[in-house]
Design the sequence.
């Protein structure tokens, strides 16, 4: 199967959609001086190739009362329980991200909470999951970098 080769138009489409996934194809087409049909076809092709996987809505959790962020390192009794622990973590809606890792922790996750008291309750829930040996918590004071575009531009230069 032939690998999809991205060109500058594809890069600019992705650049625009990463900035705002709801940008109408007609607006992108005007900006790039191509037809809206061209944008539609290229986005569809990138979706089929798995380059684009859906779109994202960014929610300001702080404005919704969930300003407390913590990162939890999870130690397991044994690695064979990893999949079961991940499934149990999925059941806790305050766990927003979980990575299976190599190194100090078996799993590393991010939680969002209303307060330190609420975070403590979430951490206790995680500690109660069968197979969790212990956890280590780091409180996030500020998210300083959350920039998908810088990496994307580096990747484009490498292509």
Sequence:
């Amino acid at each position: 199967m032939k690998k999809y080769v991205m060109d500058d138009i594809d890069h600019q489409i992705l650049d625009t959609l990463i900035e705002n996934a709801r940008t109408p194809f007609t607006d992108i087409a005007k900006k790039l001086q191509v037809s809206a049909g061209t944008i539609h076809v290229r986005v569809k092709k990138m979706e089929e190739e798995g380059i684009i996987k859906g779109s994202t809505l960014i929610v300001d959790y702080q404005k919704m009362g969930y300003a407390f962020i913590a990162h939890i390192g999870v130690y397991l009794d044994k690695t064979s329980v990893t999949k079961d622990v991940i499934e149990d973590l999925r059941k806790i809606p305050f766990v927003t991200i979980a990575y299976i890792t190599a190194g100090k922790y078996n799993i590393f996750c991010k939680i969002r909470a209303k307060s330190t008291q609420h975070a403590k309750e979430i951490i206790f829930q995680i500690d109660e999951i069968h197979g969790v040996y212990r956890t280590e918590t780091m409180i996030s004071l500020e998210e300083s970098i959350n920039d998908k575009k810088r990496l994307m531009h580096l990747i484009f230069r490498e292509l």
